[in-house]
Every structure is written in C-alpha cells, then in structure tokens.
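Let's inspect one such protein example.
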Amino acid sequence: MATQDFRPEKKISIFYPPQRVLMGPGPSDTHSRILSAMARPTLGHLDPVFVDMMEELKSLMRYAFQTNNLLTFPVSGPGSVGMEMCFVNMIEPGDKVIVCRNGVFGGRMIENVERHGGVAVVVDDKWGEPVDPQKVEDTLKNNPDTKILAFVHAETSTGVQSDAKTLSDLAKRYNCLTIMDTVTSLGGTPIYIDGWGIDAVYSGSQKCLSCPPGLSPVSFSERVVNLVKNRKHKVQSWFMDINLLLGYWGSSRTYHHTAPTNSLVGLHEALLMLYEEGLEHSWARHQRNHKALKAGLQTMGIEYVVAEPYRLPQLNAVHIPVGVDDKEVRRRLLADFNLEIGAGLGDFAGKVWRFGLMGNSSRVENVIFCLNALETVLSNMGMKVERGAAEVAAYQTYAANTMTV
C-alpha cells in the first residue's frame, strides 16, 4: 500500500498568542508568577515532593473557601466538571432536587439533575435578580421529600449575587443538603463555607484565582462524604466518583488518574498569591475597582442590569446603549485595543455587555484602559460621549474609596 501524505497543506510554525487584556467573564489575565510556576520541571503525580505540594494546595484551598472540610481538592477539569461531580455523587435515581434558576448556570444545574436520574423542582427568578428566599421556602414546604437545594452564588451570565447564608439556613431547616456554584465568586467576593453551612461547593481556576482554565476547586462536608459512602447505587461516573478519588487526594495516595501536575503547581501559586494578599484585601480590591468602573460607565450613559445591593464587583453586566452595534463594539475593542469584554448569554444575548474585573484583571490600570478604549470606540461609531470624562470619574472614585482593610 502506498504511503499517504497526511502533512498539512499550509506551513505550521510556533504559535504565539497575542497579548490581550482579558476583561470578559473569564478567563482572566494570568499573573506572570503563575505562568512561571507552570513552566517549572514536570514531576510524576505520585512523586513524594509533588505529594507534599498537594497537601499545601489543599490547605490553601480550605483557606480560600473558609472551611475545614477534609475533602477539599481540585478536580482535573473546568468548573463544569466540578459541577457535575457534585450532582453525580449526591443524586441517586428518583431523588428530588430543588434548583434555583436566575440565569444560564442555574439552567445547567437542572440539566445535571435530570441526566443523573433526579427530579428537578425549579424555582425561577428573573434574570438579573437574586434568588428569592421566600419562593425557595414555599417550594420546600410543598416538597417535604426534597433531598438537595442547589443554587448559584454568583451568576456569571447576569452579574447577580444571591444570599447564600439565607438559602443554606432554609435548606437546614427543611433537612436538605446544599450544592452551591462559586465559579465566579471564589476569591472575588466573601464566601464562608463553614459559616454558612454549605455541603458541596465547586469553582473554577480561571476566574478570580487568575489561573489558566482546567481545574475546578471543590469542597464537600462530612455529610456528603457519608452520603456517598452509603449510596444504594454506584456513582454513574467512574472518573468523578468521590469514593475512588478519596484514595488519591486522601492519605493513601492510591493511583486514580494522571493528574495535570504543572497545572496544579500553577493553582498552588495562584492560591498562595491569594493567601499573601489576604482574602479581605482581595475582596476590597475587587469592590474598589468595580466602583471606579461603574462611575466611568455612567458618564457614557451605560446602566447596570443588576440592582446595586446584589451586584457582583467582579462581573459587571450592563445594558448596551440603544442603537449601538454590540458585535461591532466588541470587534473594535479586540482588534484596535486587544481588549476582550463579554457578550450576553441566553436571554441577554445582544442586550448586555459583561465586564470582568477578576483576579489579576482587577487592576486600576485595566479599569482606566477599558474606559478610555470604550469611549474611543463609541465616539468613533457616532455615539455622543464626553471624551475623558470616564477616566476623571474613575479617578475621583478611587480617591474617595481608599482601601482600609
């Protein structure tokens, strides 16, 4: 048989990505310290030196989540894998789960419940509004056989934050377990897993931790561990079965899968940087930059989707001005300024922009750069804006909001 030529038609050379300023809903800008950490020599995933690093990683993660849960570790996969790990381990066929939906990611929770044989009871709230605790309590009363209450703490598609403590208190009152999505909130806004009594939580490495995508920090209470150990049926997923992962992330270090060692070293560095800065300082920094961005956007007549008490500082969802071409603005920002902002998802597609101020992207210079770039693009497209006003408003806000943590 003649040898076929499978060589690509065009010449392929080394890929050098452009240097972007990432101010969308994620990923955020990766700090040079993290990139440098990921470039260190690769170790085997059972190497004793690497195992020591894993213990530090778990400790740092417990700090970030504010928990003493022993089963706190990063899943090899993005936040969506962390989400599925919670549902696949905690749901058995026929289990009733109340899911709060006020955006895209509450909808994904419903999908997970149904795919794993559970019965989803949906509590809907308007996009851009927080989960209504009264609706949740009414639903719990009407469904006394509910096993789990699931909700999104920080809804990435809308920029709204819900009251996690109140929702968790309701779940405990009605003898339910909780699953909470903190993909966008971890590191950027207060989270107290133990203080709130959350049972299962998942996040992502690429948002306020500013690590490249591909890892999902998770944490499970003892109630969840006991639940999974006493399941009637095997966990549907072999890879995400907590019973098996306990062997690798526990004390025995039993081989489970080849963990992404360099990525885990990068996450270790990211969490170490969060620890060095201090959680309270990180939360305050995100809030301060949010206020400055808001002041600048308001000079252009751009208004927020979410009411002020419920806004996420790290995910700023705003209405697109009437008559402005959404795609063209984002195209020009990327082409002319190497600046990425986020489009709307689902019901908000074409109606909102999402400005991310996450982790390493939440910096004064990024806020000022973004406001000046947006002013330029909108002005060039014929919208009346007062050039330079956004920067002035932002700096005035910074002057009035010094960090005092």
Notes: Residues 320 and 390 are 16 Å apart (CA to CA). The chain has a mean pLDDT of 95.
